[in-house]
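Tokens in:
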């Protein structure tokens, strides 16, 4: 029951997270999506939506960690769950503490902005979904979605590496032509998509188990 509820919360939270993130591009078009970070949506007129969105991402991550507890008992699975829990904490911190504008010099950042940056640094979701994919690949029940989970996890990890390179190359001077904002968006979309794919399949497996259990109970009752 706990796993089933957690799975549904994870799917709903991640679906809403992606929907709000998309809507913010329309509500606050002044932020160039190629180089402005998604965190900066929190500085605009609809800033509360971005804070809510980070909380939804945190809730979706934490819920999936709970839902996958019995499905990922291997070493790689445990590592993935720990990384997902750390990421959930990071996104919660990012939701509570609003970022400084991306153009703020490092020496002029506020305590609030530094806390938000810390939250962002704790976002280890690409590594989390990679380790979880390695764990789920070992289970025959997950064979049907093995390939899409692997592809999504690998692409998300590659985007994270490209994002890190882009941020490092910018050396704190962000502007048009620095595609860190676009890469950051792709990273979150990739992670959110992985959770949705895995969550829907997990929900399907839970429903199949419940059906099988119900059939067994019915047959036992008829035999009596």
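Residues out:
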């Amino acid at each position: 029951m706990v796993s089933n509820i957690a799975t549904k919360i994870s799917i709903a939270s991640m679906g809403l997270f992606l929907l709000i993130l998309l809507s913010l591009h329309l509500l606050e078009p002044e932020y160039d999506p190629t180089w402005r970070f998604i965190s900066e949506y929190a500085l605009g007129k609809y800033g509360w939506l971005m804070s809510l969105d980070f909380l939804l991402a945190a809730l979706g991550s934490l819920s999936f960690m709970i839902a996958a507890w019995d499905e990922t008992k291997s070493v790689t699975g445990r590592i993935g769950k720990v990384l997902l829990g750390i990421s959930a904490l990071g996104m919660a911190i990012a939701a509570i503490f609003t970022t400084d504008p991306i153009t703020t010099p490092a020496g002029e950042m506020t305590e609030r902005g530094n806390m938000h940056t810390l939250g962002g640094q704790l976002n280890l979701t690409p590594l989390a979904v990679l380790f979880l994919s390695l764990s789920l690949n070992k289970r025959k029940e997950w064979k049907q979605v093995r390939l899409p989970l692997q592809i999504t996890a690998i692409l998300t990890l590659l985007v994270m590496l490209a994002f890190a390179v882009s941020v490092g190359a910018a050396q704190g001077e962000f502007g048009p032509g620095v595609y860190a904002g676009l890469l950051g968006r792709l990273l979150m979309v990739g992670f959110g998509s992985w959770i949705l794919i895995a969550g829907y399949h997990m929900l399907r497996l839970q429903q199949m188990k419940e059906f099988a259990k119900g059939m067994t109970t019915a047959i036992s009752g008829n035999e009596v």
